[in-house]
Amino acid sequence: MFNKKKNNDTEENIMSTENPSENATPENVENADAQEATEQVETQTAEEKLQAEVQQLNDKYLRLYAEFDNYKRRTQKERVELLQTAGKDVIVSLLPVLDDFDRALKAMETATDVTPVKEGILLVSTKLKNTLAQKGLKDVESINKDFDTDFHEAITNIPAPSDELKGKVIDEVEKGYTLNDNVIRFAKVVVGA
């Protein structure tokens, strides 16, 4: 009997927990409905906030993507323009030298004495070298210097006239140049062996 009573009590507890609305009073039902409605409104506003935030982040992403795309186009265009006009300032600075050469050629046609023509050509040559030096061009010193593969290209080896010239540059076939301390042409040299 005792067991039967215990089973009946648990059945009542289970039934009361399974269907709370049967035991609910009208006040409890109204409170539950109001609470459920409040939760739904809160859930909807939270969803709306999240959707608005997602939309805002998406807009921000699209703007950044468009800005980066414009940046890439602009830098590519600038690079092409730079390559097309890279030597413009050097060419412009050499135009006076070209004019001097034209004047020298005209003077050679009518010149009877060679000495002034030689002096004029030397002046033009000096002007050209000075203009290029201003742009960063320097000759590589080679003769009687130690052979250096960073600046020299050996054309041939010949027996050295003296022991002091072994491993040194004896003759220069073609001058070497550096531009802003970077080798742009190696000096072609003859090395003493």
Q: CATH fold name of the domain at 137-193, please?
A: Nucleotide Exchange Factor Grpe, Chain A, domain 2
Overall 3D form: elongated
Tell me the structural class.
Answer: alpha+beta
CATH superfamily label of the domain at 137-193: Head domain of nucleotide exchange factor GrpE
Strand content: 15-25%
- Helical fraction equals 55-70%
> How do the SSEs run, as a string of H and E?
HHHHHEEEEEE
In the sheet with the most strands, the strands line up as 1-4-5
Subunit structure: Homodimer.
Biased composition (Low complexity): 34-44
Biased composition (Polar residues): 13-28
InterPro entries: GrpE, GrpE_CC, GrpE_head
Overall description:
- The strands form two sheets. The protein has a three-stranded antiparallel β-sheet.
- β4 and β5 (about 180-185) form a beta hairpin.
- α4 packs antiparallel against α5.
- The protein has helices spanning about 1-20, 20-25, 25-85, 90-110, 115-135, and strands spanning about 135-140, 150-160, 170-175, 175-180, 180-185, 185-190.
- The protein has about 190 residues and is an alpha+beta fold.
- The protein has a domain at about 135-193: Nucleotide Exchange Factor Grpe, Chain A, domain 2.
- The N and C termini lie far apart (about 125 Å).
- It is built from five helices and six strands.
- Keywords: Chaperone, Cytoplasm, Stress response.
- It comes from Pedobacter rhodius.
- It is found in: Cytoplasm.
- Homodimer.
- Its main location: cytoplasm.
